[in-house]
Structures are given as C-alpha cells and as structure tokens.
C-alpha cells in the first residue's frame, strides 16, 4: 500500500489537513509533489542507500519530502526543531546526509548549518536565503511523474538524547524493494485499531518523532485522512476531534494529563463521540490517569510499548488493560525476557532488564560499543528499560535503568514517585531525580511544575512531601522538593531528565570545589 495508489484511485481525497488553518493536500497533490522531490534528489546525485534529513515544524510539506525520499530509496532522518546547532550538525554529519530540507521557522539554524556542514545541499520549502536553496521552486520545474528507478527507502531515526548525545538507529535497507512494500505499522493499525480508508486520524505531536512519523505514513498508505495539529493544546485537541469528526488519535500520557486538568465545563463542551480508537504510548501512564481517561472517552483506549529501535513491541487492548491495570501488554510476534544484571532470566513478578527476542535486529550508527551494550549473550536486545511480567505474560514497566536512584544501597525508581505526584491536583508536571548526598550517596529530589506558580513554596512542598509519605514507603519520599516554571519535556512526553539531574550534580561539584582545604 502506498499513497500513490490512492492518488490514482481517488486523487481529490484529502490526504492531510492542518487542524488550525485548514490547509489541505489531496492525494493527487502529494503524488505530484513527492515525484518532483524525488527528481530533485536524483538531480543532486543522491542514489538509493544515500541519506537526506528534514527539519521543519508540522506542515504538509514535511510528508511530501518524506514520500519523495521514500520513493527514491533513501534513508530519511527527521530532525527535531528543538535541537541546537551543534546537535543538528552532529546528526547531519553522523548520518552522512547529502541534503537537508527545512523551513522558514528554522531558517537561522539552517543558515548556520549550511555554513558548518561541508558538501551539504540545504533547502527551505519557504524560499531561498543565502546558501539555502528554494526547495519548492526547484521542484516546480521538474517532472510530476515517477522517477525511472523507484525503490523503497526507510526512516533512520535518532534517539531524543534525553540521557546523552542522540544515537542514530540505522535499519537494514534491502535494495530493490517496491515502494508499496508491506508496512508493520499498517498491519497493527488495521488489525488492532480498525484503521481503514474511512479513518480520520488526528496527530497532535511533532512529526519529526518516531510515532507521529510512522503512524502518519501508515495512515497515508491506507488511504485515510490525516489531521495534523500545528502544536498541541489540550482544548484545541478536543476542538479538532469535534470539527473534523476524528475517528482515531494517538496521544502520550502528558496529553492525557493536560486534558484531564481542563475545567470540567470545558471538557464537557466538546463532542468526542466520533472517536473509535485512541492509542497511547511513548511513556508509562499512571494508572489513575488512564482510569480517568477510560471513564471519559470510554473503553476505546489502546496502548503499546516499543522504541525507535523497533526490536520488539507489546500491545494491550482496553479490555485487557482493565483486567491487568498498569500493564503495557504482551508481544505479538516477539518474546519478552526479564533478566538480572548477569543476564539470568527471572521468574514472573521479578524486576529486571527487559529484553526482546525474535524481532528485527538494529545497530546504533557508528557506535559499535553501544550496540554491544544493548545485546544479551543469546542475541536478545534491550532498550535499557526495567520491568516485570505477570503469570499471564503481561509486561509492566518500572523505569529506565539509567534513571534509577541508589540511596543508601536501596534501588529507587523515580517513575513510581512521579506517577503518584502527577495525580495531585496542584501538580502540572514533575520529574524525580537522584541528587548527590554525602551520607546516602544519592537522595530523592522532586522537581515540580505547579499548576499555579504563585503556590510554589514551602507550604506546597510540605503538602506534597506528606502526600508521598502517605502513599509510598518512606525511602521513596523526596528529601527535597524544588519548583520549576516549565519542565524540559519533549512533545512526545519524554523528559530531558538529564538536564535537570546534571544541574544538581554540577552544583554539588562546584560546592565541593569551593570548600576550604
């Protein structure tokens, strides 16, 4: 399946609609523009197996460039618009990108990248500027028919960099495959979530992230209509569902939390009755949050657990979740193994490192050591997450291994504390980290974004401390609660927790250096 097929059958059908502006692209337009883009890439000397990169805000041109690369047999790297020059330059050089397509929204970044990365053709869909070429203008003079040597390309994703420098995940690209090659996400969307040509799919997240990119492409392979939010806003999401009669949407837990914190009168003011399937992933969802969403939206909320690496996935239906609350499901085509630090497989209900077997292999681009670290001696692979399975094989996530706090020799997982604190009515967002402690090694610190900044202070800190103490073990109660007006959270729901944690460890080092000797 491929949008080119739908362009032949139903060229005037909307393929994409921008939720706020209403700007639309039909399947016929996507076909024409992606063909012209493919001709442009060939004119640059880019051949199958080469790489391009894309960095732009949510807009129809994003997918037109993606499909141009896909039908040219290229790797396409989607780059976050939130990254800095050094990070973007690193990704472009690491991936060996031959072309970089941007927009006016990131023109300053693109201009600097054009000066720093040699041999890179830099384009903007919004016109030329200095060394930046006009992508739309150059495409407009090229044929709107397919290139002669079409073959399937594939996405090459980079990790979010929440725990360090972004890692490139380069999948195996088999040469000579048809552009209509079967897609795993299409299978999941159709078989598990009931997606089809009549689906109206709402994308509330940035397209440069893995799930919005992959599911957006899957919807266009199916022939559905993709409604793309320019940016997420909780009330705007409800408005888009009502306006476009959305039947399927994919959220992250942060979206759920922000929608639930809307006034009841606002939530009840929108008709969401068109929804048939709601999917969420990307981060663990606190059980009370999902219970509240299930009560509001009905038992239509599906969940999956996976990673950009694509080495394995688990899935859980609404009905299964209600019987196994807190689980992220069971695998369909792979197998889950829970192992201790020595690689020994553990029995049910034992926490350990989550490994997958039977799934596609992957490698971290130009990082053989990191690839080796992800592998079990039996060839299984891990994303670095901690969890456990019950007797029925359902997986439960605990946290990421890299976020674990060791305080006085006790292992503490921040996710459990975060899941509790986010349910407090005065908390909008929270991150729990381990900070240096001379006696315990590390101490638990909660960094809270309050719903009302005026309430930030000792009184709220004491209230939240008591809230945790009343619900969790005393060793998990934060020794300190600090406040931040805005946590550094990605639009996918992932925290840049490293940035928060580093401030505490750097400050501790500076304080130690300042001590008299």
Automatic annotation (TrEMBL):
Protein name: Acyl-CoA synthetase
Domain AMP-dependent synthetase/ligase residue range list: 7-358
Organism: Novosphingobium cyanobacteriorum
InterPro entries: AMP-bd_C (IPR025110), AMP-bd_C_sf (IPR045851), AMP-binding_CS (IPR020845), AMP-dep_synth/lig_dom (IPR000873), ANL_N_sf (IPR042099)
Top-level taxon in the UniProt lineage: Bacteria
Source organism phylogeny: Bacteria, Pseudomonadati, Pseudomonadota, Alphaproteobacteria, Sphingomonadales
Residues covered by the AMP-binding enzyme C-terminal domain: 416-494
């Amino acid at each position: 399946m491929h949008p080119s097929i739908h362009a032949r059958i139903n060229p005037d059908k909307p393929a994409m609609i921008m939720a706020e502006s209403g700007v639309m692209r039909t399947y016929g337009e996507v076909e024409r523009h992606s063909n012209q883009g493919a001709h442009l890439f060939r004119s640059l000397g880019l051949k199958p197996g080469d790489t391009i990169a894309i960095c732009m805000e949510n807009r129809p041109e994003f997918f037109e460039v993606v499909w141009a690369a896909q039908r040219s047999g290229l790797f396409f790297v989607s780059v976050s618009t939130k990254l800095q020059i050094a990070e973007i330059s690193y990704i472009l050089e690491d991936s060996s990108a031959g072309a970089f397509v941007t927009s006016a929204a990131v023109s300053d970044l693109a201009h600097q990248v054009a000066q720093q990365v040699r041999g890179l053709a830099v384009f903007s869909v919004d016109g030329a500027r200095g060394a930046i070429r006009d992508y739309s203008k150059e495409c407009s003079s090229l044929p709107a028919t397919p290139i002669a040597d079409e073959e399937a390309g594939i996405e090459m994703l980079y990790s979010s960099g929440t725990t360090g420098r972004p890692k490139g995940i380069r999948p195996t690209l088999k040469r000579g495959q048809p552009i209509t090659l079967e897609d795993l996400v299409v299978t999941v969307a159709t078989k598990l979530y009931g997606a089809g040509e009549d689906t109206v799919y709402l994308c509330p997240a940035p397209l440069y992230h893995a799930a919005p990119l992959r599911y957006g492409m899957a919807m266009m392979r199916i022939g559905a209509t993709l409604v793309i939010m320019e940016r997420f806003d909780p009330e705007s999401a409800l408005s888009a569902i009502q306006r476009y009669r959305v039947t399927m949407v994919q959220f992250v837990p942060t979206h759920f939390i922000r929608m639930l914190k809307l006034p009841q009168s606002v939530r009840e003011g929108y008709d969401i009755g068109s929804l048939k399937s709601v999917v969420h992933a990307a981060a663990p969802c606190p059980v009370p949050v999902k219970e509240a969403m299930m009560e509001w939206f009905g038992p239509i909320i599906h969940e999956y657990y996976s990673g950009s690496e694509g080495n394995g996935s688990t899935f859980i239906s609404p009905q299964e979740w209600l019987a196994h609350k807190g689980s992220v499901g069971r695998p369909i085509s792979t197998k889950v193994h829970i192992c201790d630090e020595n690689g020994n497989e553990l029995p049910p209900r034992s926490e350990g490192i989550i490994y997958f077997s039977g799934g596609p292999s992957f490698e971290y681009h130009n990082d053989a050591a990191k690839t080796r670290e992800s592998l079990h001696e039996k060839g299984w692979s891990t994303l670095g997450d901690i969890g456990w399975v019950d007797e029925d094989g359902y997986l439960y996530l605990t946290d990421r291994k890299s976020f674990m706090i060791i305080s006085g020799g006790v292992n503490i997982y921040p996710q459990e504390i975060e899941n509790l604190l986010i349910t407090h009515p005065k908390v909008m967002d929270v991150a729990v980290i381990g900070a240096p402690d001379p006696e315990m090694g590390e101490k638990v610190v909660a960094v809270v974004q309050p719903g009302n900044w005026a309430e930030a202070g000792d009184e709220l800190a004491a209230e939240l401390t008591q809230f945790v103490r009343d619900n969790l073990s005393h060793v998990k109660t934060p020794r300190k609660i600090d406040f931040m007006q805005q946590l550094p959270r990605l639009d996918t729901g992932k925290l840049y927790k490293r940035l928060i944690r580093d401030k505490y460890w750097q400050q501790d080092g500076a304080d130690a250096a300042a001590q008299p000797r």
